Structure formats: structure tokens, C-alpha cells
Amino acid sequence: MKNSCPSQSSATYRQKIAIRSQSSLSDIYAIGDIHGRADLLEALLGHIAAIQRAGSSQPVIMFLGDLIDRGPRSPEVLDLVSSALDRYPGSRLVLGNHDHYLRSLLRDELAEDDATNWMDWGGVATVSAYSRQPVPNRDTRAFSTSYRPPERRGDP
Would 140 be classed as within a structural domain? Predict the structure, then answer.
């Protein structure tokens, strides 16, 4: 077989290709189901940054959805993900069902049944993180179907 680069020996040519390939290597990280745990995401991103500083690799992070809900720090998670997407070119975000519900709420497209489901699946934590007042979850008296305010029961 004839060398595709006739002016160089095939060993030299392969060596140059390997050097070029090594200089553009990326470590690919897949992170999903963060669920409002900014503390854990900070640790992961810190680890990725340390690896980047120690080597020549350019990290690429694939965020695989469910960034929010359940954990108490969903707003911080969204900020961390946004910063990571800016910092690491080629990184991507795929929205999960929890993220989709928040986006639908913000666009005023969330149906009542979907809103109920979202709250049951952890949306209370996200809404509470953005609210000045705590949002009761469905297990509290405020959401109980048997609970009625005193004025409705005829109590003074």
C-alpha cells in the first residue's frame, strides 16, 4: 500500500497524526438527575475542572436532564449548568421531564393535571426555592381534600 503522504515515512506521518489527536482529546462526562443538589454538582464540576487543569484534555459535559426538583437549590443548579455550558465548548443540555414542567410553567403552558403531577414529583422544592413564602406540599393540611378552612365549616 502506498503512503498517503509521499514526502514522509508512514511512521513519521502516523506519529504526527497521533500528536494532533492527543492535543484535541476531550473527556466526555454525562451528568443527569441532579434534582436540585447544587452541592453535589459543585463537587462534580470541581473534579472536572481539576482534571482539566492537570492535563491537556478539554472536557465536554452532557447534562442529561432532571436538573431541578426535590433538592433545595434548583436555582443554583441552573446557574452552575449555565456556567459550565459556557465554559466547556461542545457541552450540551438535554431537558428532562422535571425541567420540561418548569419551562412549561414559565411559558404559561402547564395544564392543571401536569402541574399537580409536577408538584407531586418534587416541583414544590423548586417553586419554594424561587418563592419568598414556603409552598406547601400535597401532604400538608393546605392540600388535603378533607381540610376546609374554618369559615367554610361554619366555625366562628
Answer: no
Which grid coordinates are listed for 120? 407531586
| pLDDT tens-digit map of 57-101 | 889 999 999 999 999 999 999 999 999 999 999 999 999 999 999
Query: 3-state SS of the chain?
Result: CCCCCCCCCHHHHHHHHHHHHHHCCCCEEEECCCCCCHHHHHHHHHHHHHHHHHCCCCCEEEECCCCCCCCCCHHHHHHHHHHHHHHCCCCEECCCHHHHHHHHHHCCCCCHHHHHHHHHHHHHHHHHHHCCCCCCCCCCHHHCCCCCCHHHHCCC
Q: Contact, 54 vs 118, CB < 8 A?
A: no
Decide if 146 is inside a domain.
no
For residue 83, what is the domain's CATH number?
3.60.21.10
* Model confidence pLDDT, tens digit, residues 17-54: 444 444 457 899 999 999 999 999 999 999 999 999 99
Question: What is the domain extent for residue 101?
Answer: 26-132
Spatial distance between the Cα atoms of 81 and 95, rounded to a whole number of angstroms: 12
Q: Is residue 145 part of a domain?
A: no
* pTM assigned to the model: 0.71
